[in-house]
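Bug #2210: token dump truncated for Signal transduction histidine kinase internal region domain-containing protein?
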Amino acid sequence: MFRFETVLLFMTQMFIRNPLAIARNYFVLLLVIAITLNITTIHASPIEQAQNFQEVDSLLHHRDFERANRLLETLIQQGQVNHDAWLSGKAYAALGSSLLMQGKADLALKNYLTSLQLLDEKEYPKEVSKIYANVGALHSQLKRFSEAEQYLLKALQLNPSKEDRLKYLTNLSGVYLESGQKQKALHTFNEAIALGKAQKNKAVEAILYTNLSNYYLEQKQWDRAINHAQKSLELRAELRQAPSVITLNNLGYALTQQKKYREGILCYLQALPYASLQEKKQLYYNLYQANKLSGENGKSLQYIEAYDQIKDSLTTLNYRQKVAELDAQYQAKERQRKIEQLAATNTLQGKQLRQQAYLIIAGLMILALISLVVFLRWRHTRLKEQLEKSQLKYRFLLVQLNPHFIFNALQSVQRFIFRNDQQQSMEYLQRFSRLIRLVLENSAKDVISLDEELELLDNYLRLQQLNAEPAFTYEITVTAAVERELTVIPTMLLQPLVENAVVHGLKGRTNGRIALLFSNDGNKLRVLIQDNGVGFLQEKQANALHKSMSTDMLRQRIEEINKMGKQHIEFKLVNKGSEASPGTTIQLTVTS
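Reproduced locally. Full output below:
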């Protein structure tokens, strides 16, 4: 629904944005400043060394990483030869910044830690403080919030300058907010805001007010969220900065929650021109929700279509990236295999030229080398198969729905059109297209949110209801304790059970009824699927629990899910009522 806006010192994602986007985001400027300070002000150095680090600074500014890294490695070697711990430590810190700008977080962390081993914090407190802050920000980027908090507190304990202290407090408040430490986050926000006002640093104040608006959104304190978001936008306007997409999104969400739909929609629309592709996806979904709540069904449909298009684009992009990564991994392994195989062959040939006394040892070496070649070949084949499976995965998404259901749906549309029932035709087509999209999108996932599953079930039951003779009714009830967006369940777990109740349980029955109840018990989601149909025993006599999923197949799938250990599912099927109309109840318990 909303996102954080942070000033974390080295967010990898900033380096993949275009220059105009970087210029619009103040926190990116802070990153560049932090890198510059880290490189050029760690220690007063001789003139020649100062010129070298200035050259490194210029190379990084122009993103000439190869030359910058070569120069830094030379400086590291000079420091090691001359036993100059300060020079080596400073060069390692600068190399860490260079690697982080290239998106190599692990190597950057390694160089930062090496720099900390070389620099004494008592002798160089300000320089070490900066490195602590960089390491803390890097840990935060990697979602290691405990380590991030530890290093940022260390940075603050070394009495940094007022400007650096403001940046560190801003980073620390973001860490507390993302790690769920609400009271610490609020206290640190207020301390940072007071310091920002004292320094008249309106740019950082604007970021802090955005984060505070997000904090109050989580607390559902809509008035405070609106007030802080508006303060952030006012400060950006004074600085002649472009509006923050995150701030406008937070403001629009808070206004929508207060049923001020028109004002909320205007905020979302104002943010769209400045939004990235991922941000547009969230904004279009929020526009769909706001228009739906305000009764603007036409616009709601327009925005959900735009949301789906953006989502498709991101899915395609992510899929291509995954395939490219797997292909690169495969190519690297293939090259390594060839190198190792060639080395093994050369070793074998060399061994064959040795004297007769070493034949036994040579035989053992040959056996070991052959085993190595076989292993490398096996590993190469397995990786190639994984690549081929990844490339074919998309094709399998097209066969997830029962073809019989699809043919019936299309015939139903034809029937509605023949009867000139335009309203029923439009509703059926909209729900059918939405159902197909949901199934195709979710088929590639292991789990989906309960909110998505409820939308899928509602569309499916409504389509069956429009097509059923005799008619039946259904009801989906979700208790207030269930967090629909945060609760996840295995993909396509409930739809086959509901399909069985409709197709087999209520077949030929007048006044048919299906009821779905979702309740929460701690970390357990309880699901009841009830119908007043013919009952399981009579169905079993007819040799059909479900023509597309038997009891054994269902239990096998649940067993496989339980083996994975991420969730545990308990399944129970019972009859209820009288012999004439026993009905069936399915009980599912999903433990996260």
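Output looks complete on our side. The longest helix spans residues 297-352. Marking as cannot-reproduce; reopen if the truncation happens again.
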